[in-house]
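Ticket closed. Logging final result for Cytochrome c oxidase assembly factor COX18.
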Amino acid sequence: MLTVGGLVRCRVLQPRARDVLSRWASPVLPLTCTTESSVRPASGSGGASAAGGWYGSLSDSAPVHLCENFLVSAHQVTGLPWWLSIAMATASIRTCITLPLAAYQLIIIAKVEALQSEISELAKRLRFEVSLRGREQGWTDKQSRVQFQKNLRRLVSQLYVRDNCHPFKASLLVWVQLPLWVGLSLALRNLSLDRPGRGSCTALHGELAAGGALWFPDLTVPDSTWVLPVCLGLTNLLILEVFSLQRVGASRFQRLVLNGFRGFSVLMIPIAASVPSSMALYWFCSSLVGFGHNLLLRSPTVRRTVGLPAPQSKTPYRDLLSAFISKYWR
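Final structure:
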């Protein structure tokens, strides 16, 4: 439930790009249609109007249209069916953008964890010095605590600057991945809209309507079988369980947060069943690729390559499987 370079602020492809793409497929279709039309429902009983206000503005924003252009270009350049084009575009974005950020996040976390012993020693010495100074100055217990916390924060910040590992840098992945996820989701929603009277948009809608496979032949309607939504929920739960196996002796707050994410993963199942299959397919592929990246970054060879500390075990995958089996099958 997830990657990114600089975004070029444009609504349509440049003329040179069109000339190149025309050799592979039909000309790139301009994506300037508004989102005021309706989504094609599974029952065929008439669409629901697109939400106005901030949601309509977000759906019609330049970054979302850029994501639309990227998806259309990827489809036309590769010549793949829409369902496979969405899967390949998702894998490429997550591999080229979020995988390096995930590795960088692990590097920052490893540096912060390596500082914990030094921070503990500094805290002990600082507490002793503050207690001595407090007796000399006649500080109350509250004043001593304030001085201790103030100076400890200053010392910890100096350590973070020294090792270039401020914890905020570990959140860079979230700040990049979340907007990408929202942008691509809204882009697929816009492409799945039925826009009567607009030739280019209607043509795209027709391609998506015939661009599915297996049990989801129409990517513009929800998956009536619920296979994609259920696969999405199970994949997200699997990611969470693998993550929980890494944490031994988690605090009560960490367990509450983990249970909250579990509940959200279950909630995503009916949500994915109510959106076009193109969106549910993207969400599932994104989670599946993210799970693969999670496993990849456990490899001792990969960790050495990106400068991460070597794992304690030389067989991380076997240990993970053993821990999973012992937790859920014994």
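The CA atoms of residues 38 and 330 lie 50 Å apart. No further action required.
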